[in-house]
Amino acid sequence: MKYSMKVQEASSLVSVVIGFKDRGLGRLTLCVESIHASLREIPHEVIVVDYGSQRPQPIVDLCNRQEAVYVRPQTNGEWSAARARNAGVAESKGDVILAADADMLFTPESLVRVVRQLSSHPQEIVILQCRDLPLGYSDEKVREEGINWARLTAIGQLRPRWGVGGLVGIRRKVWDRLRGWDERMHTYGGEDTDFAKRAQRAGSRIEWLDEPGVAMFHMWHPSATAVASRDEATKLAIAENRRIHTSDNTFARNRVSWRYLPTNMTPLVSVIVVDQENARGSRGFTNTLASVMGQTVSDIEVVQVTDSPVRTTDPRIRSVTGADVSVNGTFVSVAFAGDVWAHDRLETLLGAWEPGVGLISDRKSIRVIDGIGNAITQFRLLPADETQASSALVRTELLSNGRIQTHRWPQIVSSVAASGTGWRVLEPSHNFCEVDIETEEVSAAKRKSEGLQVRMNLQLCGLTEPVLGKEGNVSVDEIARCLLDGDDLLVKISGASSVIRASEYWSRSRATSWFISNLETSNGAAIGESGYAIFDDPLAALEAVEWAKTQGLTASIEPLGSRTLVNESVANIEAVVQNAERVHGSVSEPGTWVVVTAEYSDIAQIEASLRALATVTTVLVRRVQANETRTTFVLARANHEHRAHLAKEAAKLGTDGRVHLVDITHHQKSEVR
Q1: From CA 20, how far away is CA 102, in angstroms rounded?
Q2: Greater confidence, 663 or 583?
């Protein structure tokens, strides 16, 4: 049921949502009046969500008098502030969302200041500092004495900031990313704290507003929480709320079950389903599409990349014919025709998300079939380095412009990993694939090449280290034999200025992929430089070696073979630090390194900020180029006793996932040395 008063339509509309049930009609009246007064010069709507009141008519009458929107969703009888607010947002129109409690009074300058903050900082979550009016100072008392803001400020007691209730301001795009308040939470407690923590995990900053004239006041009333907490069922609900906000590290909630899903919201996940030659014709593509549409996470958009799209009336599906695809979801993944996803695959991947992780994958299982679909082999789990790129779920904001070239998906994923974001691989498999026996050899070679590129990319960002075995040039006959066996060739170079010279050459050459990295001090002195290129053309590989020699560079060529290029025991950003510690670490003192993933334009400012710290002894820069993608890390070292100061200053340099602290202990120093 919904009653709507006349509301001014505007692209800058502010939507204020208030959840309410049964108690405190006088407080609600004062609250709505103060909201209108504070937003008097801004187009806005006030939405009162009656979440199961016994007598709804007085609330309807209040909304009619106060020019508010009345919404009464279906409920199961229990109170849930999270669900009430989501129901209100589902009916709202504004780009700015303010969630207010029904027992708050807002000063004339408070809400306009919140809106102004969100306009200039659209990624923030804005929280208004609350002051509690003293015992007995109820809405009746406020009416009796009249609203005197100076007096209320004098008698109000500042509420501690361990809670964030009362007023939360957020832009709709950020709200969409979080998928609203967690609807598992009900009765009392935890939903606002959980919401704020999730916003921080998603990259938003919390801004507390506490300025002269900018405040809200909580009108006293008997505590419903204290009365209800005597009930055993309520105690269990409060404990479950606490468990959710302390143990669930994801930021996107309501992934499987959402009672009040807005119809105009951006999707949680974009899935691109790509047709390809080994998909057993239309049946393979159709099976893949069906497995995607059958996910327990239904809040998705699906993009068919095929010349023969499946006809459907499902509004979540659209079709394109080119390989360049734009997506709208908070996360994105690619399913290649022939893949079959377990029904809970997206649910599993999303549920395993945690702070600092930008990519998450599972292992793919594959089996070979004959021309009529009979299985020749059992499903076997592919090595992680062969499938973790192609099966990755990625945060879309880590991609350039939200556009994807589907034929380069593994390379795109490995480039995202090269930026320093966390990458988690899950087991067991929730992703299955069938391939024809005629195309199995081709598929194996393709997976091998993709896995190699991922490993090389991660190594050159310090996430893993190469184990290349013996080096040196091999004869042309040996090269030819390797190519007949399906092996690619590895060309390795080193020497002064190799990064600049090789990047210019390889961008024009016939290398299938190439990677260059150098580590330098803050004044530009190189510590180490190296480059690798992969060729499937022997003439192009030999030409690359000859070119390197003309530039005065050391060059070698060798087959990749079946050797492991990565030492699996070395992982994440610690390898970057260990490389730097070997050259610039203290012989005896343990230390802490801060590693910042930086845009090129920010390098100088970050270096200056780190060098200005008296506790910092060393500042380094590591530059990585993978094909046309460049990434830079800025590193700084301090002795271990200054760790707290370094951590505090490092937090100012970037958002979650871009700043890392790594400790070097006495035990680790013996290993590094």
Answers
A1: 7
A2: 663
Digit-coded pLDDT (tens) for 573-632:
665 676 667 656 655 578 888 888 777 677 778 888 888 888 888 887 776 555 555 667
Residue 75 CB contacts under 8 Å (≥ 6 apart), including other chains: 51, 52, 83
For residues 257 and 241, give the distance between their C-alpha atoms in angstroms, rounded to a whole number. 17
Closest among 590, 621, 582, 629 to 603, alpha carbons compared: 621
What is the distance, to the nearest Å, from the Cα of residue 121 to the centroid of all Cα atoms in its chain?
Answer: 19
For residue 348, which amino acid is it? T
Q: Could you read off the pLDDT of 260-290 as tens digits, one per residue? A: 877 778 899 999 999 875 344 455 788 888 8
What's the one-letter identity of residue 336? F
* Rounded Cα distance, 340 and 162, in Å: 45
Strand-pair category, 157-158 with 130-132: antiparallel
> Residue 454 has which token pair?
């991922």
Q: Determine the Cα–Cα distance for residues 540 and 81; give it in Å rounded to an integer.
A: 65
Token reading at 296: 């327990």
Residue pair 332/303 in contact by the 8 Å Cβ criterion: no
pTM check: above 0.90: no
Q: Cβ–Cβ contacts within 10 Å for residue 165, how many? A: 21
Report the 10 Å Cβ neighbour count for 601.
Answer: 7
